[in-house]
Amino acid sequence: MDDIVTTFESRGLKRGGILLLKPDDAIELVEAARQQRKPILGVDAFTVTETSTQPSMEHSADYSDQSKSIDTWSAARHHIEKLRDSGFLFEVVV
Q: Is the pTM of this model over 0.85?
């Protein structure tokens, strides 16, 4: 796990080795990555209940092919903000 992500572990929920964050914390992680100039490779949205963790492929974004050609930080931030009130938790892949 990336050092940036590790610093956010206390704010999130760990499920199967994945750190899931509330929207505001996910945005803070994106901004920390921006400060360290580490591109965002993707943002995955999850629905979490007491008994299950379900990824939402239609609400996830993959920037891995574009990480050198676009501002992945702004794209990731916009994606999370757009889904802020959806009830999703987010994995930010750095």
A: yes
